[in-house]
Amino acid sequence: MRIHILGICGTFMGGLAALAREAGHTVTGCDANVYPPMSDQLQALGIELIQGFGSEQLKLNPDVFVIGNVVTRGERFPLMEAILDAGLPYISGPQWLSEHVLQGRHVLAVAGTHGKTSTSAMLAWILEHAGLQPGFLVGGVPQNFEVSARLGAGSSFVIEADEYDTAFFDKRSKFVHYRPRTAVLNNLEFDHADIFADLAAIETQFHHLVRTIASSGRIVVNARDEALQRVLSKGCWSEVQRFGSRKEEPGTLRARGEPQAFDVLRGSLKVARVEWSLLGEHNQLNALAAIAAAEHVGVTPEQSAAALREFKNVRRRLELRGEVNGIKVYDDFAHHPTAIRTTINGLRRKIAPIERILAVFEPRSNTMKLGAMKAQLPWALEEADLAFCHSGNLGWDAVQALAPMGAQAVVCDSIDKLVAQVVAAARPGDHVLCMSNGSFGGVHTKLLAALASAA
């Protein structure tokens, strides 16, 4: 089959392209401002990438056009208009994946507002370590694999299950296409304010996912999350494995100990011990979810714990990018206020009390650009010693939003000004934590260079 992918450089669509190529299909694709890292990965696979969405791409004459959710109707996407005018076959990315990759596999889907990528990577590594040779599609690059997607030789397939909508012609969440036999519901908060009116609307989509799971399937659910309990109260037809309770509950998986060294308990019975390098209670919960999901395909908690001891996390998850003059610079994907807070907290619990955290962030996601969560930013940043916000292209006043932080917060409208302010404030022993769901204008490289120059 010959497929042409519109929006190929997105993490999901790029992973789909890699899977299609591995399966023997002829793959081409296009995107606006074809960009790395996905463009580099795809070109290394021999996949032809075309700049822009011009209608001349019709001449490629693929068997089907696969449409990413970046594509909308109108003059910005003349290729899509030409496809519709010509009556040519097209399909969404999630539906193509379901029909051509996931069919007949034991799908393990990881859903939730936070932790999808990390938990998916943990789960894929656990299954790999156990010899199950899983396929996977993860929204990042797990360092144990160094690729974001592969078909795998085994029967299981791990997929990061996103609640964002499927395509302009299919407004259901992506994850309803995956029909998992094992589903992790990690947590649920309001997000994606550009497509969801409120939390209740997202809960409805999560219940659509619950409706697709067989009675012989397993739902792994965070016992602490009230929104997820509301989702299940609407109807549940599958086995439920809860995790993360703070107190002893029969059958529930929970942790006892610090995030980097903890016992895994089922009720009061110790079933495994995890000792690893990851920080934060959020990663401890992610590990419990992965252990519970892996158990559904026959991997014991002891086997999972052994795998997690060798887990290297995903790129851009508190990833140390360099150190200059005793100042460490990190890169992290956090962009939702809760994720920002938990990332800072995880680092805070690792470092010495006298060491400082300089939080450098940009409100880049659609939700943050709309200002839907600006009031939560002071709460998210309160454990940082200083906070530096890039305010470019925002439709709201970042200075006003961060005013409760007083002199603790600095707002800059350009990356260069931001770098200059951070360098002026940084001193040996500091930890500079850069947080964004985008490339952040290469701020990490610029900071390291500027710090070196200053030193």
What features would you describe in this structure?
By secondary structure, the chain is an alpha/beta fold. It has helices spanning 11-22, 38-44, 78-86, 93-102, 116-129, 199-211, 226-233, 281-295, 301-308, 337-350, 366-369, 377-381, 398-401, 415-425, 443-454; strands at residues 2-6, 26-31, 48-51, 64-67, 90-92, 106-111, 135-137, 149-150, 156-160, 165-167, 170-173, 182-185, 218-222, 239-243, 253-258, 261-266, 269-275, 319-324, 327-332, 357-361, 386-390, 409-412, 431-435. The strands form 5 sheets. It has a 7-stranded mixed sheet with strand order 8-7-9-6-12-13-14, sandwiched between helices. Strand 1, helix 1 (11-22) and strand 2 (26-31) form a beta-alpha-beta unit. 51% of the residues are buried.
Which descriptors would you attach to this protein?
alpha/beta, globular, 455 residues, seven-stranded mixed beta sheet, 15 helices, single chain
Shape: globular
Largest sheet: 7 strands, mixed
Strand proportion: 15-25%
Give average pLDDT, whole number.
Answer: 91
Task: Indicate the percent of residues in helices.
Answer: 25-40%
In spatial order, strands of the major sheet run 8-7-9-6-12-13-14
Number of helices: 15
Ends: how far apart?
A: 56 Å
Task: Quickly give the structural class.
Answer: alpha/beta
Oligomeric description of these chains: single chain
- Which radius of gyration do the C-alpha atoms yield? 22 Å
- Point out poorly predicted stretches: none
